[in-house]
Please model this.
Amino acid sequence: TLKLALLEQGGGLPDLKGAFQPNLFSSSMVIFNFLLYNSFLVCLGLLLTSIVSFFNTCLEELELQEDLRLLFRHNCVFTHLQRSYIFQQYPGVNQLSSSLGGLSLQHSQQPESLRPVNLTQDRNILPVSSVPAPVPNLNSDLRKLNCSPDSFRCTLTNIPQTQALLNKAKLPLGLLLHPFRDLTQLPVITSSTIVRCRSCRTYINPFVSFIDQRRWKCNLCYRVNDVPEEFMYNPLTRSYGEPHKRPEVQNSTVEFIASSDYMLRPPQPAVYLFVLDVSHNAVEAGYLTIVCQSLLENLDKLPGDSRTRIGFITFDSTVQFYNLQEGLSQPQMLIVSDIDDIFLPTPDSLLVNLHESKELIKDLLNALPNMFTNTRETHSALGPALQAAFKLMSPTGGRISVFQTQLPSLGAGLLHSREDPNQRSSTKHLGPATDFYKKLALDCSGQQTAVDLFLLSSQYSDLASLACMSKYSAGCIYYYPSFHRSHNPAQAEKLQKDLKRYLTRKIGFEAVMRIRCTKGLSIHTFHGNFFVRSTDLLSLANVNPDAGFAVQMSIEESLTDTSLVCFQTALLYTSSKGERRIRVHTLCLPVVSSLADVYAGADVQAVVCLLANMAVDRSVSSSLSDARDALVNAVVDSLAAYMSTASNLQQSMLIAPNSLKLFPLYILALLKQKAFRTGTSTRLDDRVYAMCQMKSQPLVHLMKMIHPNLYRIDKLIDEVITIHVNDRVVPQPPLQKLSAEKLTREGAFLMDCGSIFYIWIGKNCSNNFIKDVLGYPNYASVPQKMTQLPEVDALSSERTRSFISWLRDSRPLSPVLQVIKDENPAKTDFFQHLIEDRTEAAFSYYEFLLNIQQQICK
Model:
């Protein structure tokens, strides 16, 4: 029986429900039956093409009755043929699918990801909970073995067969990596034999194929390799002769303990050097107290072993070193005033063993906040201090932590203000003013030293130049605008929480990372903080669990001969305990030949994050307006390409597949983000920092920065959906649109921006909620600078704190909390995140959709 499947309203792939009813037709069905029964066995392909043409003619010329118009008003695709018979007897049917507008015949049912969505009509597209990563269309066995999307994610979970098909889809192909993230379960392989492909050096993984017990075929280059004798033994089951059951072949994320073959030198110790600004500006800001207190509290938690070393340098117009050699009664300060020819006064006693000199280190940290209280030094010799730090760290490598509060004004690397309110988005100001910091970073990287920057500034400090010290040495950047310990308690609390995480999180030293992919695919651009050592090798002097990376890819050779492709990232590093380790992640994805399947597998969040990385590069190399245009064009081109695959769409419609329904919303959010927004209201350092985050944040954190989550929280005790976590009841309120229309004066709302939680209280919010959750009798009594929720013995308080704790537990950096009222100055920051609303310089979401539609129709 030949059955006919009809498209659901809006076009796209079929839902495959309706069956062909011959008695609905009059004389035209005689012709149809004649064609059907006399042509089917002669030429199936010709028959199907004729049928499609016939029905199109019927619809256009005969104006069928109302029931037939309703039945056939969308595209038709033939399916429900006996699949096994068709594919065996007519192998050309695969090729036929491409002639039917890119609609695949291989699906027995339209996937939900291809359900057409009319964006201009359906305004409630936001899901009730966070958007999950799409699951690749693999068989259940491969799906179970595949790498977690939290570690390894591709913009397209269905890989196009050819570059031409990828170009047609108008979507970027790339990977989003979070290779060193914290894991609760990580198989550690201690075998002396690490099995790798002899040709491409791929690590053995779940997606290789065993030809027999003694040979395995590489899933990237297809070379056949021998199975080493030792690999025949399975240490988990203690059995012999089952290499396919080894942990390396059962887990897509594993960590190997590496042998001496993976070492150029003995593993280095953990070495930490702190470089601290002690100018008048720094002392006035009060950051030293927080840094020294955090170090005192976490000194014993610094990652390392008995060899761990630590040192301190301070600077203003001179550079001060501290002799902490064991045996001294107190720390000795050594001042070098010749900043043009910096030298180390006592090279052997400035970096000391943490355990042997712990008491001296504690004495120094207790004394430092008060040592410069009366200083009148306003200058900052940051460059010379960094030169000294480089000399001190070069023999071993390690981590330099720099704390800076102003524009460097003396010696090498001095900078001048470039902050012109009328040119804040100028391309030349988004790039560095000098190459001093980049050169220094490359020198540090060569000596296995990373530089992390903490910028605590109340004025312009040229972050575009300073950031280079971290970008090219695989360091990280923290930024605290308008920092003041007492005047800005929210920023002070943020620094305190960031430092706790920073000082105690896992760290990898002298690392390199290589990304491999199946033959036919190639990597051409990397994004993140690193130094590119070769075409596919990244040098990472340090690697931390909060660092994300992205890569762009292309298809160099047709993938028609394979149904699966794989990607593998291998991170070789030295642990803080001095072990050489290799963390390997392997991702497997299907190859598809139809345009519809490419769209069905689109990962909209990964696409947006990769485009964000690309737009940052475009902003610096070309201009901000070019980057913005490119982002808008990405939406226009991809939706136009999709709509061209489905005929009979009205020009007044803006249709997207369900997989991409959030694409325009996310791009609008990106355009309104500090990195890319127009106008001169965004400070230059703020814009540059947002760009730095785009290039170095893992996807899950970056998405909250781009499109925060908004929840109503004044009715959590009535929330029907809850989960239980550690004997706590955690309510699960639905996500709200980022629009002021969702804010009611009777309610209270929590906005999760990733690094900060805003709680907005409406003027007419219930006094019971304010009393139970905020601890104040009414709205008027709630203070302006409230950053903590009290523990009140009330159900609403318990549920609210439980929900916020649950959100906090899902990320490494603990966000700060800020309670906002209508008259609060921070209200501006809160309302800037309501991206669906119109602003003076930007479209509302609906206006943006109309603009997209207008450009598609041009």
Notes: The chain is about 30% helix and 20% strand.
